[in-house]
Amino acid sequence: MSQHDFNISNQGSGPSRADLNNALKALASLSSGASAPVTTYANMPWVDTATNILKIRSEADDAWINICYLDQGLDTFNLLDDTLVTDTSGNQTGLIGDQTTAAWEAGTSTTESLVSPEKIAAAILALSPSIGDGQTWQDVKGSRSYGVAYQNTTGRSIMVAARGPDDESFEVSITGGSPWVELGRSDTDQDSGGQPGGFIIPDTYYYRWTGSGPAGTRTWSELR
User: Fold this and answer.
1) Do 74 and 97 belong to one domain?
2) Looking at residue 175, which CATH number applies to its domain?
3) Which of 122, 153, 154, 178 is the most buried (most CB within 10 A)?
4) pTM of the model
């Protein structure tokens, strides 16, 4: 380890030779030392042995830029967390590091970066959770009426389990208007009047029991 000001003074041949050798040693060791060189130059490299960080002096000669971590125990060159990946013009195209869990779960960031399997699983669950995850069955019969369209505004798919009027249709619609798609029909042969049906309703879809028969539903529960 050696550092030098890289200025060879006018002196005798012996001291000049020693001065030159010290300067060359500093160049060969990248001015390594536990503290920064006293004399610095633009784009000067320095291995900070106190932190094992390879640094380079800024073009303006006013700051040190961290390049990498040198693991002296494993003899490896390690990239630093949150290192920006850029194109040849300096425009960021990625990130060697981890973004917040919230960024992964939102699924809107376009920055390429490292991600753990745990965060991938959390992001998948947040963006497209399975039916039943974090949901509970709720008896909503008291707030549902035959022939009225209801919209799923929960932000995810729900499931409806209901026993409708005799020989009537359970329908869904994307817009709340025509066309309505029939998912099932209650069975007049059931002793209790109306066969129960279970239906998945995507987010923002509309759903209803409707038809020309007697009004009223026997049961209506929703997993939401």
Assistant:
1) no
2) 2.60.120
3) 122
4) 0.55
